[in-house]
RNA sequence: GGUCCCAUCGUCUAGGGGUUAGGACGCGGGCCUCUCAAGCCUGAAACGCGGGUUCAAUUCCCGCUGGGACCGCCA
């Protein structure tokens, strides 16, 4: 059968191994692939690389799935589980790899290696000591089958060409050439017969008809090996794009020791998926001077050409800023929903049907970098302060007659029939004349009484939103406490 | 040690043979102002070094330096 089918369809995959959680680096790789697929109307596939039975943990697979769902990076294919697509699991695709190994044996591009692990270890040790390059010395490559020991386990190694070069025509890196003599006869199948990473990847990418591979540049050396598998088995390789890695502040690849964290932790901390995506996409990708992109814009603008070869260092302050932009710019209905969720989650407050929600959002949103902040700055509208900040009390209430003014204001507030911003403001202005003080000297005592702190939204709005009865009660409580 | 890659403000980046080297985060100052934010205005802040090529290099080439990635019967 001649393969004449045009493989112009974009098919990409994100292929994490469940040996850890989905962190910023993996999330960005997934995002790039997802955007590329969406941009070209192609397919985004999730493939869990769990061939290492000892290190792979099913719960980590679930964590990766949850992380991707949180980020809104839905995949388009997979075994159906309960009406939706599950990920492809390499652990369930043994047949495909076995067939691929068979094919490799038929083509004569693999050979048996009877070295034991110990043997390989000492070989490596000697190489390191002799400061020569560490690589399998191909000692079994040309041994005739008559040399094969009976009943001894063996691995299958790839018969790498010894001359010439392997060239990666990378969409991001450009042309990268490796001398074939530098490429190792890597193990294709372990002593127990199970196939290894590079081989499974190729088998899957061929089987899944992957058109483009977008991943970190840390895979570049693997690509040289994989390209040789494609060649040996007569398969067409996908287009490769190797992106510069994300680094920590110390310049090394971002990892757990930099505090690399599960994306689900970002959710807990109150970051929005769209903000996270916006932040992540700008790590190694840019479109002119633009910073904030809607998902639609991203899908429209994203392509491989904008991807960078160089590293990107994480900068969480920028994430904070972006997240805040998303919170502030969101539609009121959206803000209300976030606020209710956040109050429930972080403050255990049920604000359902509260008529003040929209107004509260207007004041809380510009003060919130995260949804957690949104809840925190809003809680004063629902619950009384559970403590008074001593510094604030001392400075604004106890010193300079704050208490006296607070008492005066309390009485005027009590007289108010209409308790809104206008009438409240009038009271403050009256008081300012009466006491001959700046507004500061009036607002702060009230603020402390209402919130327990020296910080809140504008005092008129705050009073009006807390309401007359509750405001009076809080001031009364404060007067009582500090009398 | 071997192989490969990278290099514009502190950070993310735009740019590209001739620019006052642009934007953003953060930082400083100011405006607004009842606090804190937000917003607006504004300031400081970068082409690693050395050779070429060229009338002209931050931009192209080479070297150096610095940094990184990879070198498992892990993925």
Structural notes for this entry:
By secondary structure, this protein is mainly alpha-helical. Helices cover 46% and strands 11% of the residues. It has helices at 24-39, 58-71, 94-107, 117-129, 197-207, 220-232, 263-269, 273-281, 295-301, 316-329, 332-347, 357-364, 371-378, 390-398, 402-415, 421-435, 440-451, 459-466, 468-482, and strands at 11-14, 43-48, 80-81, 84-85, 88-89, 110-113, 155-158, 165-170, 174-179, 187-189, 212-216, 239-243, 246-247, 312-313. The strands form 6 sheets. The protein has a 3-stranded parallel sheet with strand order 1-2-5. A 3-stranded antiparallel sheet has the order 6-7-10. Helix 15 (402-415) packs antiparallel against helix 19 and helix 16 (421-435) packs across helix 18 (459-466). It starts with 10 loop residues before the first strand and ends with a helix. Mean pLDDT is 94; it is low at 1-7. It binds one RNA strand of 75 nucleotides through helix 4, strand 9, helix 5, helix 6 and strand 14.
Beta-strand level of the residues, as a percent range? 5-15%
Biggest sheet layout: 3 strands, parallel
What is the average of the pLDDT values?
Answer: 94
Distance between the termini: 94 Å
Q: Order of strands in the sheet with the most strands?
A: 1-2-5
**Which residues form runs of ≥5 with pLDDT under 50?**
1-7
Q: Structural class from helices and strands?
A: mainly alpha
Shape: elongated
- Total helices: the number is 19
Oligomer: single chain
Helix content: 40-55%
The count of DSSP E runs of length 2 or more, i.e. the number of strands, is 14
Report the C-alpha radius of gyration, rounded.
32 Å
